[in-house]
Design a protein that fits this description.
Blueprint: H1 17-34, H2 49-114, H3 120-125, H4 133-202, H5 205-215, H6 235-246, H7 264-274, H8 283-286, E1 291-292, E2 303-306, E3 312-318, E4 321-324, E5 333-336, E6 342-347
Length: 348
């Protein structure tokens, strides 16, 4: 994930434009560090601390993108498990219906067999009271019609059952595929994070400390002044802001959605859940989980998604600040809203 450095004030909401430029410069440095061959004139050599820090930024950013893909696959797997269970339950109920219908038809067939298979009309004609033949014939017609309808119902139930079983089989295949995707994204995240940690370990102690200081924007978790600007857009937004503020200092753990640890979209989802509002699990989905507003109209509780792919999200809390879960090794904290290029501002 890109470094978060305190920008100098500029027009619009404090901390916006300059913070975006710093991140773009950091991304450019990361691309240079990753390139093969000789570095362009004026570029920082690959083995310098500055290039190493830029590479760590790039690895964190890629790990966060993979984390959101993991969250998406994991959320889909949870949904598919519920759908598979429902499909199996529906198929079981359908089988019970079929068994009952078969039993009813089997009873009629058994009765006919025990009567010797004699034509029912002949049985009536030979009865002791032929004067009641017409009445009994009408009854027989109704019985025959009921049997025909019962057989038709049985066939419909069997077709429905076959469809339910096919749907359950398809969902099971989807679930298995999604499980593989979860494992794949998990390995990607862990690989990126391990590479970033190895690179950080190569830096001298003072450079590691400088990286940590630069990434924290000089705030050290201090509560920003929220007195300026407009208040939250609704009581639910106010409750979500209070919830997010209450967990400042909790650790970032990828794939976590509270209450003891969070990743970026896990924090915003959890905070709004405390306000009784359900948000999607991923930052990409949260980008569209409400009405989008201009940055200049941002109010506390609005969701701010970052980068063109919306792979990071924070919650605007006023005074040009967001609260967010940054990356592994960092805690939930406040940073300038313009710490990275903004994709959208969304009001749930």
């Amino acid at each position: 994930m890109a470094s978060h450095r305190r920008p100098t004030p500029s027009s619009g909401i404090p901390g916006f434009q300059r913070g975006a430029r710093v991140t773009l410069l950091s991304a450019a440095a990361a691309s240079t560090a990753a390139a093969l061959g000789a570095a362009p004139a004026g570029a920082e050599p690959r083995d310098t601390p500055g290039a190493a820090r830029a590479e760590v930024d790039r690895l964190y950013e890629e790990a966060e993108k993979a984390t959101e893909q993991y969250n998406k696959a994991d959320e889909r797997a949870d949904r598919l498990r519920e759908e598979v269970a429902a499909a199996r339950d529906s198929a079981a109920r359908g089988q019970e219906v079929i068994n009952r219908k078969r039993g009813a038809l089997g009873s009629v067939a058994g009765a006919q067999y025990r009567s010797g298979g004699m034509d029912p009309a002949l049985v009536l004609l030979l009865s002791e009271d032929p004067d009641t033949y017409l009445e009994k014939a009408e009854l027989l017609d109704r019985l025959s019609e009921r049997q025909t309808n019962a057989l038709r119902d049985l066939r419909r139930a069997q077709r429905a059952m076959a469809q339910q079983r096919a749907e359950a089989t398809r969902k099971l295949a989807d679930l298995e595929s999604t499980r593989f995707a979860v494992v794949r994204h998990k390995r990607t995240v862990e690989g990126k994070l391990a590479a970033a940690q190895r690179l950080l370990n190569t830096l001298p102690a003072d450079e590691r400390e400088a990286y940590t200081r630069a990434s924290r924007s000089g705030r050290d978790g201090a509560l920003p002044d929220l007195s300026g600007g407009l208040g939250p857009s609704s009581p639910r937004a106010a409750a979500a802001v209070m919830a997010a503020r209450s967990v400042v200092g909790k650790p970032y753990i990828w794939g976590a959605n509270g209450p003891g640890a969070f990743d970026c979209s896990g924090l915003t989802q959890w905070a709004y859940a405390q306000a009784g509002v359900g948000l999607p699990r991923t930052s990409q989905a949260q980008r569209y989980a409400g009405r989008q507003v201009p940055l200049s109209e941002a109010r506390p509780g609005d969701l701010v998604t970052y980068r063109s792919d919306a792979s990071h999200v924070g919650m605007y809390v006023g005074n040009g600040q967001v609260v967010h879960a940054p990356y592994p090794g960092a805690s939930v904290r406040y940073d300038p809203v313009g710490m990275m290029p903004i994709a959208a501002v969304t009001r749930p």
